[in-house]
Every structure is written in C-alpha cells, then in structure tokens.
Amino acid sequence: MTSFFGSVFWLLVTLGVLVTFHEFGHYWVARRCGVKVLRFSVGFGKAVWKRIGRDGTEYQIAAIPLGGYVKMLDAREGVVPPQLQDQEFTAQPVWKRILIVLAGPGFNLIFTVAALWLMFMLGRPDAAPIVTAAPQSMAAVAGVQPGDRILAIDGRAMATWSDSLDAVGNALLDRSPLPLTVRSSNGAQKQLVLPLDKLPPGQTVDQYLTTLGLELAPPPPVAAAVLPGEPASLGGMQVGDRILSIDGKPVPDFEAMSKLVQQSAAISPKLAVVVERNGNVVPLQVAARHESLQGQPLAWVIGVSGETATLRYGPVRALREALVDTWRNVTQTFGMIGKMLGGQASTKNLSSVIGIAQMANASAQMGFAWFLQFLAMVSLSLAVLNLLPIPVLDGGHLLYYLIELLKGSPLSEQAMAIGQYIGLVLLFSLMGLVFYNDIHRLLLS
Question: For the whole model, what pTM was predicted?
Fold first, then answer.
C-alpha cells in the first residue's frame, strides 16, 4: 500500500473509530436522560447506508467521513408533538444537558485509558534509550556522550527511547533547564543539565530537537537474544556476549555487526566471530544462513538480536500506567494550549488531518500496539479540543449551560446566535492555520 493510500485508509479508520465512540457517548447518555435521539450519524452529508432501529433512531453512515453527530429531539428545530414534550432536549433540567454535552469528551477519555491499557498489556516494542549527540550540539556541550543510556528525565524514570523523546519534546516547549540522569557505556552514572532556556522562542519542536542534537544511538554489539537452533547458538554464542569482531573486522555497534554479517557471509558463510564473555575473549565459528524472514528479501542471518525495550505490564499495573499517562497528557495538552495563547509556544506545532493521516499510517506500520497508542493520543486530543469554550463545540454548549446555572435562565436566542458566529470564525481560523502548517511542511519536505 502506497504512503498516500495508506495514510487515507488509516485516517478513515482513526476517524471512524474515534468519532463513533465520541458520538456514542452523547447518544448513550441522552438516552439514559430520557431524551429522544432522532439520528446517529457517522460522517456528514448524504447517507451511504442507514436503517431505523427499534428505538426509532435513524442510524447512518454518511459520505464525508470527517466527523459525525447525534440529532436529538429539539424544540428549536421544529414543532414537537405534545406526547413527546418530555423527551425533548431543551425541556430537560440543565444538569442533564450538561451531562449529555460532557459525554462525548468523556467517552473519548474512556477510550484513551482503554487503548493505553490494552497497549501496555500487549507490549509496545521500542528502542532502548541509548543516545548520542551531534557534534557541537547543545546536548554534546552539556556532556552527552555516545552510548549514554538515559535513566531519568527531570526525575522521571525512562525505559524507552520514545518516552524519552516525548519527555524532551514537552520540556522543549517550556524552554527551561532540563535535568538528565544518564549512565555511560562504562557503567558510571552522571547528572547533566540540558540548557533549554538558551533556545530561541517561536520555533517548532522539530527545530528545537535539531538544535539540541540528542539522537538515538545504535544498540551496543551485545547479544540480547540468541535463538535456539540458529547459527549463532550452534556456534556457541550466549546471551550477554559482546561481539568484538567478525572476520577480523571490529564491531562498534549492533548495526555495524548486521552489515558486517552481510558483507562477510557473501564472501564465505563461515564467520570467525570473537566475543567477550565475563571478561574473557572467546573465539567462535558461526555458519551464517541465507534465508528470507517474514516475507523480507533474502539475507544472511545468524539468529542473534540486539537490545530492545518493550513496555509490557500485567492488567493491574497496565491500568495504573494508562491512567497516569492519560492524566499527564491531559495536563500537557492544556499546558501547550496555554503556552500558544501566551506566545510561549509556536502554533506551527499544530497539525490538521493531513498530519494526522501521515502519523496514522506511520504508527500502523509500526504495529498494533503503536497504533493503539496513536488512537489514544488522538482521542485525548479530541476530548480536549471539544472541551474548549468555543461555541459550536461541546465546550461552548457547556459554557452556555454553566451561564444558565448562574443566571437562573437560558441565554437569549440572539446571544447564542452571536456566539455561534464567533465560534465558527474561531474554528475556521484554527482549521486554516493547521492546514497551512501541514501544507507548508509538505512543501519543505
């Protein structure tokens, strides 16, 4: 599947799942509050499929899959039969209307926790947080050395490269000094400080990361796993062996080892491998095998893999981590919005459906666990976006009802109409900004 069609497909999957779940929240709570639901639609525009349920609700999938809606019985949109007056939306107590409005974002948050919980139980494959620093970069000047392993960032323990990158990315928006705990390749632990306060304001996170120069390093040439019955195992290699050389050529890291296996085995499959084991140098003879793994092109393999990091927990720990991650991301998202409004963070960091489609495709290619995490983050973003006090969004309606609670009566039709116009202007302005950002990035790439 090409990148374009893959992006479109996974965007439709993402929107289909998340919009359905969001709108189901409104639908489910509305029904529980005694409100009649006339239509449940996934997508906008002309229906491509629909049916009438036993409850009288029209369920449909529409042609434009960029949203959805729940249409409730509402006196503002037409005459309500006398026998249905008690099921009409505006006739409900204000607390019921608030619950119905909150249900969409609330269900998005529930989905976020559930997706992260499943992701943690399945296990998300990742790279170990072993880093290097680009020459003369900010990270290099701060003391980051090739082969350093990140142990903690600002006091929070790090187990994977992705989590480390995420923590650094969020810290870059604050542009304040960032404490880093690392362990050198020789085993020594050291405390460093990345001087993010010296970064110029108004740049994107990607630009900041380039200036910082902190990069993922290839894993060390250590056998983290040796497959039974494969050439390395038959040749006597053991887990924990550090590979020093292949056919007399030194092995600086695991990526170099993989390349040397291909080069040397192409000349002769019988490889002279020297490893370090418990402080002793041990020579081995390994006969590489030419085969195709999981549909990949033919290659020389010896059945050994380097160090990786997989986040996997049991059900209870996974739920706790999912709740912690959700809360952390909610606070970070609101914090980022505040920084953008205050001019401390660039609006160039925002993305439209174009960027979401690209990320959806990329995460799907990385595996189901990664796609689950992506769905969780987009679902959380939808929840936060919908809670913003902008008329036409759930947060705007919530604002109306909170004002009604305070003043004891609903806002006038004129005030709400003005609010709708303001909301549409704000929403279309935001859409224009994020589309501009993505198109600009595409033109520069």
Answer: 0.83
